[in-house]
Automatic annotation (TrEMBL):
Family annotation (InterPro entries): Cell_wall_metabolism_enzyme, Dup_hybrid_motif, M23ase_b-sheet_dom
Superkingdom: Bacteria
Protein name: M23 family peptidase
Signal peptide: none
Origin species: Chryseobacterium elymi
């Protein structure tokens, strides 16, 4: 009896240690990085285009220039200045093994701001990625480090806040660190879907099921499925008393009281965040803007620490009996919703037939047409695809090739792939130098330079759609927001960038022969007047040189008075 008690004690102790290891994050070590109550516009793990949201988006009451303070003692180890992405960002390394990140800032605190400005003028480059030693910019908990803003890839004023493991740089769900954010609302389920898994989740695709709500519980009619192998997916959001649609933290799928699959969004690295596309119904997301998360594993989805069940989530029916299904969703605060229903295999099925252009996860594949070739790596796809590739004449007046159709933009690609396209006529060397690849994804486009490999142009992409070669002999330009020679009374100079094809990839401004710091905001270039051009300094000449994607260079001269 004593030995049995000892054994039970050891088992319980091991379980306690195991559970603690999963949630052993310092509680209340980090403070709110704003001096207003924490309110979420987005949480960790929200579904975004081609990535998970990797931190918390903290509301700033639709205002800019709120004080942003250090969440704990440490030192500023890095800053970034970039057009998209984080915009202006600060990284603080802390002695407990974590790094906090603060993004979309308007301005750094004075001493740091002056350092960055000096570095920009020294490098004659606005975009920066600077690392610091511990003694350069030490900070204490609650110290002002910046002013909030709306810079980079931000759609409105807010503060993006992350907590990372300093060694691995993995982002960890900040809500696991004990921040006090009121949350009494359970996740809301608005849709349930099943998929025939004999071939692929993409073909024939999702089968929608109407969900009925009763408090925090949900149900459906008995689900009749026509395949002996299926999986489920759920459309759901969390609210957390904030009114915004937040992401689901934890989900479980059970059949006949057995766990079939579960996921938790505790930590993700930026190297792996694109695996999101294998966790959702990507066609539904791109076509209908619907966030539907799989309760199963796709073969090509290899995100670490996400599937917490060790099971695939694929259900294999061996009878036509009715089976019980339970889906449990939880947020970090423990608020729980349940969907309880039944499923039955109806034995009336037709299976998708693989084609000769079948591409599967974990298998590399080359598919070609008469004038084009795509090389997909073994890590390119999350699920099987009967890959269609075609080409047709283009109506674009700048086109020098057929339009190459790569399946469609509703199928995701994880790894970048190589595409080669042959022009439809012989080009002069100077024309080859100005050839670009235009890629149309349906909702947006991209233009890249590419490289010549024999008689074809080669470029890399990580989305599918339509591609074409264009000859771009046009010049980029900027248009000033003032009349030439005018007296400028505003606090800024603004230039709007323009290209016929592609983007302005290089911008240089010189004021009376000296480099001048213009920030890039989307397609605009903005200079904030400072000691380089004070009031009353008279007439000035501004020389601007721009280069577009194709490599065409344009130099423009403007004058103004100050």
């Amino acid at each position: 009896m004593k030995n049995l008690c000892k054994i039970l004690f050891v088992i319980c102790f091991i379980n306690i240690i195991t559970i603690g290891a999963q949630t052993n994050y310092p509680q209340n070590y980090f403070r709110n990085p704003l001096n207003i109550p924490m309110q979420l516009a987005a949480n960790f793990g929200v579904v975004r285009s081609n990535h998970f949201h990797m931190g918390l988006d903290l509301r700033t009451n639709s205002q800019e220039n709120l004080s942003v303070v250090a969440a704990a003692d440490g030192y500023i180890s890095r800053i970034k200045v970039e057009r998209y992405g984080f915009g202006n960002a600060v990284y603080i390394t802390h002695p407990n093994g974590y790094t906090t990140v603060y993004a979309h800032l308007n301005k750094y605190f004075d001493k740091l701001d002056e350092y960055v400005k000096e570095r920009q003028y020294k490098d004659e480059k606005w975009e920066q990625d600077i690392t610091f030693s511990p003694e350069q910019f030490p900070v204490s908990k609650g110290q002002l480090i910046a002013l909030s803003g709306n810079t980079g890839g931000s759609a409105g004023p807010h503060l993006h806040f992350e907590i990372r493991d300093t060694k691995t740089e993995e982002c960890i769900n900040p809500l696991l660190f004990g921040f006090k954010i009121p949350d009494g609302i359970s996740p809301i389920i608005s849709g349930l879907y099943w998929y025939d898994r004999r071939f692929s989740t993409y073909e024939p695709g999702a089968n929608g099921i109407t969900v009925k709500k009763n408090g925090n519980n949900y149900t459906t009619d008995v689900i009749q499925v026509s395949s002996p192998e299926i999986s489920f997916a759920v459309k759901a959001v969390d609210k957390a008393n904030q009114g915004f649609n937040l992401g689901i933290y934890h989900a479980e799928l059970l059949m006949d009281d057995r766990l079939i699959y579960s996921f938790s969004i505790d930590q993700v690295s930026y190297d792996d965040t694109r695996y999101l596309n294998g966790c959702i119904d990507y066609p539904k997301f791109t076509k209908d803007k619907m966030s539907i998360q799989h309760l199963s594993e796709l073969r090509g989805m290899k995100l670490k620490n996400y599937n917490s069940s060790g099971k695939t989530g694929i259900i294999h029916f061996e009878d036509d009996s009715v089976h019980n299904i339970e889906i449990v969703l939880k947020d970090v605060s423990g608020n729980t919703s349940k969907l309880i229903t039944k499923v039955r295999y109806a034995r009336n099925s037709q299976q998708v037939t693989p084609s000769d252009k079948l591409v599967k996860p974990d298998e590399a594949k080359t598919v070609s047409t008469e004038n084009a070739e795509i090389n997909l790596s073994k890590n390119a796809l999350y699920d099987a695809v009967n890959f269609n590739m075609d080409e047709k004449p283009s109506s674009n007046t700048d086109a020098i090739s057929n339009t190459v159709i790569l399946h469609n933009s509703y199928i995701p690609v994880h790894d970048g792939y190589t595409l080669k396209i042959k022009p439809n006529r012989k080009l002069l060397d100077k024309e080859k130098e100005r050839t670009v690849v235009l890629f149309d994804y349906g909702s947006d486009t991209d233009v890249v330079k590419g490289k010549w490999r024999g008689d074809k142009v080669e470029a890399r992409f990580n989305r599918l759609g339509k591609a074409i070669l264009l000859l771009d002999q046009s010049l980029p330009s900027v248009s000033p927001g003032w009349q030439d020679g005018a007296l400028i009374k505003n606090s800024t100079l603004r230039l709007n960038g323009r290209t016929k094809i592609g983007d302005i990839i290089s911008f240089r401004a010189e004021l009376d022969g000296n480099w001048l710091r213009f920030a890039r905001v989307k397609d605009d270039f903005i200079y904030v007047f400072d000691e380089k051009c004070p009031k009353g300094s008279g007439s000035h000449t501004l020389k601007v040189t721009t280069t577009n994607t194709a490599g065409n260079i344009n130099t423009q001269i403007f004058t103004f008075q100050r």
